[in-house]
Amino acid sequence: MLELAILGLLQEAPMHGYELRKELATKLGTLRAAISYGTLYPTLKRLKLAGWISEAEANSDIIPPMTSKRGRVVYKITAEGKEHFADLLTQTGPETYDDAGFGVHFTFFSRTDRATRLRILEGRRRRIEERREGLREILARAADRLDAYTLELQRHGLEACEREVRWLEELITNERSGRTPAFRQRTESTPEPPRPPLDRP
Amino acid sequence: MLELAILGLLQEAPMHGYELRKELATKLGTLRAAISYGTLYPTLKRLKLAGWISEAEANSDIIPPMTSKRGRVVYKITAEGKEHFADLLTQTGPETYDDAGFGVHFTFFSRTDRATRLRILEGRRRRIEERREGLREILARAADRLDAYTLELQRHGLEACEREVRWLEELITNERSGRTPAFRQRTESTPEPPRPPLDRP
DNA sequence: TTGCGATGTATCGAGCCGATACATCGGGAC
DNA sequence: GTCCCGATGTATCGGCTCGATACATCGCAA
Question: What pLDDT does A116 receive?
């Protein structure tokens, strides 16, 4: 997963580790927490070994000083890396639909075809719907077995699921209707779509 | 974290691994995904070694058959385990406020004192507020650098943060006002509190 | 009776995190 | 001037966690 993220970012521009981490933190939304160096550097090493990226000592002409000793290492994507990135972008496994995987794929949606985007959005929706059904099950069947706090946590989780499903529906509709990257404006005049009441017995 | 969850569940009743996992999946809300056996069994081994739980081969009198060979192993909490659980409940580190940690602590709120509950709720709120500010920063400063999809992901994340902060505010108010485990009803007549418009410039 | 899905225990490789160490850079305090 | 500190930067280690896998039993239906 991180593999895909790194290749995607390096496709935009060569970068060194520190920079890469910052980009990772800002671009990959809330779904994917900031990556740690203990993950980043070993992964970079692995990608280099696989031939998907190459490192180039930054000669002080191009990039600021950091004179001598351990200079900063700039990574850039290789031709094989670009191919691999393209493959990863369209490939979908179960991990594509968990929080982290979906976040990364979504971030690179503008570099994918509509078919893939729809497949991923629908897979994600399916995943969240399953989670939602599980929660409804609990809330309906086992409500008396749970204390008030646990119950409230489940209820909050259920609301979040319902909200995300609605969001995904919107994106899917948008995607099908052609106008791909155009999202509706959220302004004071249209703060929220009319919300159907929760169906709790 | 899982340590706290296991001890908490075993405090309710002795259980074997499979059962423990199911309880874990249902009780710990959406914040904490279902635990894997590759995590559960090593953790149980560790807890047993620490003396916080003990295992008792289920003799077929009490629990259904599963005749012979590798019988199911029932774990129960020890006196030291109970003490340790009480300690863990009130102790708060940084990991208390991430999704998993908060989920587990919240699940056991009914076994904590109000002071601890407030401390945890406020810590969690602070954490989410930080995330929210980060997202606002990005959306305000770097919006032009990001494509439409990435932007939409950030916007969705921001909304989720704002929503969770409001939820926490509600819980905190509730907690302060005395009536501890009483949550307001969500029915068709009160589907949602009036929502202030998003403050986007 | 055969076979299959749920129940049940357990391990292994690999990914990932937090803590830690170490080094340089730019700038403000004194 | 120099001294210290926070941001920048690379890197490793121990330990937790996951997904895949293996193996065994139980209840039940074809």
Answer: 94
| Residue B16 contacts strand C, CB under 7 A | yes
* Residue B87 to residues B76, B91, B92, B112, B132, Cα–Cα distance (Å): 18, 6, 10, 11, 31
Which residues of B lie inside 8 Å of A (Cβ-Cβ)?
Answer: 26-27, 29-31, 33, 98, 103, 106-107, 109-110, 131, 135, 138, 142, 146-157, 160-161, 163, 167, 171, 181-183, 186-188, 191-192, 195, 197-198, 200
pLDDT digits (tens, 9 = 90+) for A106-158: 999 999 999 999 999 999 999 999 889 888 988 888 778 888 999 999 999 99
Its CATH class, for the domain covering B2-99, is mainly alpha
Tokens of A107: 């971030």
Helix orientation angle between B99-107 and A148-176, rounded to the nearest 10 degrees: 140
Q: Where are the domains of chain A?
A: 2-99, 126-176
Residues facing A76 on adjacent strands: A54
Residues A45 and A64 sit within 8 Å (Cβ to Cβ): no
